[in-house]
Design goal:
This protein is mainly α and 400 residues long. It has helices at 2-7, 12-32, 35-51, 55-68, 81-97, 101-112, 121-135, 138-154, 158-172, 195-205, 209-218, 226-248, 256-263, 267-280, 299-325, 331-345, 395-399, and strands at residues 253-255, 285-288, 293-296, 359-363, 373-377.
């Protein structure tokens, strides 16, 4: 009956009727000593005050609920862990709306420390959504994904909003992973309610700054959510920074007005981005603010030239080492061998040397590692003719 009445209450008069109905129900539970129904009714009443933003009554009611979920010694009662998580979820929603991040962080970690609860998926979706908004880091992606999965399991319409937060966090973390690659989120990739965010992440991952800007201009309703509106500026700044780096890559000097015209942003914003890049070390150069010109120090060309010079010197050293010390490549030996070959082929060009004079020859070493040696060689002595008794030369007699 309470659930049926709660669904039909949408105006101020209905809210007052609901509040009175809950109060009468709680009085009846005091006599029956039904603690479980008393806790559930008080949680519904606290949710009613949270929706009406009556935070004073809400805080008093939450304090009573925390006390009811504890033992007499002040420690948490494991048998009431599920109700404690519901109370923490309500309290987290209140501090998220009032932007009390310090208190929000403490409640988030305390809620995750409860292990004895079997909560409704929607409750865990609220807690994980809080963790994602609070951290806005790699852990935020995990929390938003878990929150979406819990909302989806519970059938809550909140899953669409959390899916938008997941897409936004993916761009903020400069992740190259598509959030719609998981089996839980893939069915929602073509959902018209998140088509703008889908197009945004696609343009972001392809570094298409003009398409990104057009999507933002044509989908102003996507910025209606306070959390998205608060963080989308950082994503836009990252996109424009990547656009500036892409445009100035081939230039040693560029005009900031030219960059502003290409990206369709103001010169002041281009100057701010360039200043950030210089301070961050991503761009080495000097800004001439008077002329609006940036001169880039192209250290990469200097490094490349030095590398080529070192490479050339190393090749030259290797060549000299092979020629001077390598086996079969010594210069004096090669010259001597070439001279001897020339004399053998053209004896008439001997330049006055006697044919019988000793000369240097070179013979390469064997494979056992012996060095090339120069030895003296003399031509074979003239063959002595043997004369037989008849006075004629006889090879047979010489052989004998």
């Amino acid at each position: 009956m309470l659930d049926f009445i709660e669904k039909g209450s949408h105006d101020e008069k209905a809210y007052h009727c609901m509040e009175k109905f809950y109060s009468l129900t709680l009085e009846s539970f005091r006599s029956t000593n039904n603690e479980r129904l008393w806790l559930k009714t008080n949680i519904k009443l606290a949710r009613l005050w949270l929706d009406r933003r009556e935070y004073t009554e809400f805080v008093h009611k939450v304090r009573d609920l925390h006390t009811a979920c504890q033992r007499e010694d002040g420690t948490d009662d494991p048998s009431k862990g599920t109700y404690a998580l519901e109370v923490y979820a309500l309290e987290i929603q209140m501090y998220a709306e009032t932007r009390n991040n310090k208190r929000l962080k403490a409640l988030y970690h305390r809620a995750l420390s409860i292990r004895s609860a079997v909560p409704h998926p929607k409750i865990m979706g609220i807690i994980r959504e809080c963790g994602g908004k609070m951290h806005m880091s790699e852990e935020a992606q995990i929390n938003f994904h878990e929150s979406f999965r819990n909302y989806d399991e519970a059938g809550s319409i909140q899953r669409i909003k959390v899916l938008k937060y997941l897409v936004l966090t993916t761009m903020l973390m400069k992740s190259e992973i598509n959030p719609f690659d998981s089996p839980e989120t893939k069915p929602y990739q073509n959902d018209p309610r998140i088509s703008a965010m889908t197009d945004l992440v696609d343009a972001y991952q392809h570094d298409d700054i003009h398409r990104y800007e057009n999507i933002l201009q044509n989908n102003k309703d996507a910025l209606a959510d306070p959390f998205i509106a608060e963080n989308i500026d950082e994503v836009t700044r990252n996109m424009r920074t990547k656009g500036v780096l892409k445009l100035i890559a081939p230039y040693r000097r560029f005009n900031m007005a030219f960059i502003a015209k290409q990206l369709e942003i103001s010169v002041a914003e281009v100057q701010d981005i360039v200043r950030f890049l210089v301070v961050d070390g991503k761009l080495k150069g000097r800004i001439n603010q008077e002329k609006g010109i940036v001169e880039v120090d192209n250290d990469e060309e200097v490094v490349r030239t030095q590398s080529i010079q070192q490479w050339t010197s190393a090749i030259d050293l290797l060549w000299r080492t092979i020629v001077r010390k390598g086996e079969g490549f010594q210069a004096d030996v090669i010259q001597g061998y070439g001279r001897r070959r020339k004399q053998e082929q053209h004896p008439e060009e001997d330049n006055g040397e006697k044919r019988g004079a000793p000369r240097e020859t070179a013979r390469p070493t064997s494979k056992q590692g012996r060095s090339i040696q120069t030895r003296l060689s003399t031509p074979h002595p003239p063959e002595e003719k043997k004369v037989c008794a008849s006075g004629l030369y006889s090879p047979l007699h010489h052989a004998r």
